[in-house]
Amino acid sequence: MNPLNQTEALSGHSILEPASRPDHGVYDATLEDWDHARAEALGYTAEHPGVSRNWIRGYAAKGKAKARVVCEAFVQGACGQGVCQPPPHRLRDGAACFFGVTEPTRHLWQQARRENRDWYYLDNAYFDKVRGRLFRAVRCGVQATGLERPDWRRFAQLGLEIQPWKRTGRHIVVVLQSNTYMTVVAGKLSGWWQEAFAQLRRHTDRPILVRGWRSNKMELAKTLREALLDCWALVTWSSAAANEALLAGVPVFVAGECAASQMGLSDFSRIESPVYPQRRARWAAALSGQQWSLDEFRKGVAWRTLQAAV
Description:
Blueprint: E1 14-16, H1 36-41, E2 56-59, H2 65-77, E3 83-84, E4 95-99, H3 103-114, E5 119-124, E6 135-139, H4 152-158, E7 171-175, H5 179-185, H6 192-203, E8 208-211, H7 217-227, E9 231-236, H8 241-247, E10 252-254, H9 280-288, E11 291-292, H10 294-298, H11 301-308
C-alpha cells in the first residue's frame, strides 16, 4: 500500500491532514478566484504613457485570469511589451515572466533557460500573513535565497513574529506539493514523495503527519499553525510552509532549493539531528524585501529592486 495514501492515527506512522485533493495535473498558484473585471477597473492593466518599453513580455496559460493580471502588473512596471495569452509556440524577443510555470508555459520557460535569457518567476508571497496581498518576483530563479539585503522597514510593516526555537516535539510534518509543480518545475518523478517518506521511516520512529496539497492556501494556513504545535521538524521539497515553520521555531528539512534552504537541512537521514540557525530575523527581513503588492509591481518597485541586484 502506498504510505502517502494511508490515514492512520497520529500514534501510528502517518496521517493525511488536511485531506489531500487531486490536482488533476493543473497547477494553480492562486489563493482564490481572481476578479479580473475589478482588477481592470482599478487600473492593474493600464500601461505607462510616454515611457520607452523594455523587451520583456509575460506569458500566461489560457483561462488563467489572475496569472495574466499579475504578469501585466509586473510587465507594466518594467515598461514591457504586454502579456501573451494563450502562450505562443515560441518566446517573443526579449525577457519573459511567468506567474508560476504550468504545462502550457513549460516549453517557454525551458526555452528561456536554454537560451540564457532573463526570465522572471512570479508567485504568491513568502509568508502566509500577506498571501493574497503581496507577490514574490525572482529573476532567473523560482524563489529568493534569503541572503538578499534585509529590508527592516518592510519586515516591521509585516509584523512578523519569530518564536524561540523548539528543541522538543512529538511528530514530524511532511508538506506535499502539487504533482504538476513537482514534475514541471522541480523535475521530479511522481514517486519522489514515496521515496522521501521511506527514507524518513528508516531514520525515525516519530509519528508523521502528511499534509496534502490544495490550491486554497488560506485554508491550509489555518491548519498549519495547529500542525506545528508539538512538531519536531517540518519536511518538504520547497513549500512556503517551511517559512512558516521557521517563524514558529520549528526546524526544517527542504530537499529543493528555496527560500528556506539556508535555514535548514536537505539530508533527511539527519531527521533526528535538525539544525537551529541564528539570524532568522535577518533572513525574514531579506524575504520581506522580495515581495510586493500589485500596485508596487505596476509602479516598477519590484523591477527596479531586481535590476539593482544584477
